[in-house]
Design brief:
Oligomer: single chain
Shape: globular
CATH architecture: Alpha-Beta Complex
Largest sheet: 7 strands, mixed
CATH topology: Spore Coat Polysaccharide Biosynthesis Protein SpsA, Chain A
Order of helices and strands: EEEHEHEHEHEEEEHHEH
Helix content: 25-40%
Structural class: alpha/beta
Radius of gyration: 18 Å
C-alpha cells in the first residue's frame, strides 16, 4: 500500500465478526432481524446511500457463511480477528489488497449500530475530509456520571467535558494501521488508537439515536425507531 497523488478516496469498513454475547441472542446479534431485516442490512443500507464512498468492506469471522447465504452489494472479507481491533486491522490490510492507499480515508462503523443515517455519515465526512487528523461521531454526555466501588456510588464526576463515542470514525488508512498496530488488541475504538499516537481526533456531534444495539432491551428500541422512519 503506497500513497497516491490523486484526491483521497473514501472507504467504509464494517467489523462484523463479534459474537454479541451481551445481547442474549442465539447467534451473532448483527444478524438478528429488526424491522423485517437482519440488523446489518440497515447498517449497510445507510452507507450504500452515500455516493462519495468508493467501497464498503464487511469483515466477518472465518466460516461465518451469512453473506454466502445472503449476498450483498458490499465486499466481504473473512478475516475477522479475536478482537475488534484485530478485525479492523485485518480489514484495512484487505482494503490495501483491493486498491486503497495510505492517504485514502476509511470510515469504521459498528455493524450493530444500525440506526446510523446517510445524513450523519455525510456530516462526519464534511467535518473531517479536510482535517489533519480525522474524527468521530460522538454525543455529549447528558446523564450524571458516577464512580462505582463495590456496587456503591462513591463520587460524582464532572460531565461537562465527557462525550459518548459513536461510529463511524474516520481516519487516514495508513495512519490508522500504524495506530492499531502499536495499540494492540485492547483498544476499543479507532479514536483511542489514534489518541495513543499523541493526536486529537475531531468530535463531531451526532444523535442519541445512533446507539449500538448491545443488550436485549436495545432490540425493541431500535425496532421502534426503524419502524417510525419507515412510516
Amino acid at each position: 500500500m503506497s500513497s497516491s497523488n490523486n484526491k483521497p478516496r473514501l472507504f467504509a469498513l464494517v467489523p462484523c465478526a463479534g459474537a454479541g454475547s451481551r445481547a442474549g441472542t442465539q447467534g451473532p446479534k448483527q444478524y438478528e432481524r429488526i424491522a423485517g431485516q437482519p440488523m446489518v442490512w440497515h447498517t449497510l443500507a445507510a452507507f450504500s446511500a452515500v455516493a462519495r464512498i468508493t467501497k464498503v468492506l464487511v469483515v466477518v469471522a472465518p466460516g461465518d457463511g451469512f453473506f454466502e447465504r445472503n449476498p450483498s452489494a458490499a465486499a466481504v472479507a473473512s478475516c475477522g480477528g479475536a478482537t475488534r481491533a484485530a478485525s479492523v486491522l485485518n480489514g484495512l490490510r484487505e482494503l490495501g489488497r483491493v486498491g486503497a492507499v495510505e492517504d485514502d480515508w476509511v470510515l469504521v462503523h459498528d455493524a450493530a449500530r444500525c440506526l446510523v443515517t446517510p445524513a450523519l455519515i455525510d456530516k462526519l465526512i464534511d467535518a473531517c475530509v479536510h482535517d489533519e487528523v480525522g474524527g468521530l461521531l460522538a454525543h455529549p454526555l447528558a446523564d450524571t456520571l458516577k464512580l462505582e466501588q463495590a456496587g456503591r456510588s462513591v463520587a460524582t464526576l464532572d460531565r461537562r467535558d465527557k462525550w459518548l463515542a459513536q461510529t463511524p470514525q474516520m481516519f487516514r488508512i495508513g495512519q490508522l494501521m500504524q495506530a492499531l498496530a502499536r495499540a494492540g488488541g485492547e483498544v476499543t475504538d479507532e479514536a483511542g488508537a489514534i489518541e495513543a499516537l499523541g493526536l486529537q481526533p475531531l468530535l463531531v456531534a451526532a444523535e442519541a439515536q445512533n446507539f449500538k444495539v448491545t443488550y436485549p432491551n436495545d432490540f425493541a428500541l431500535a425496532e421502534a425507531v426503524l419502524r417510525s422512519r419507515q412510516r
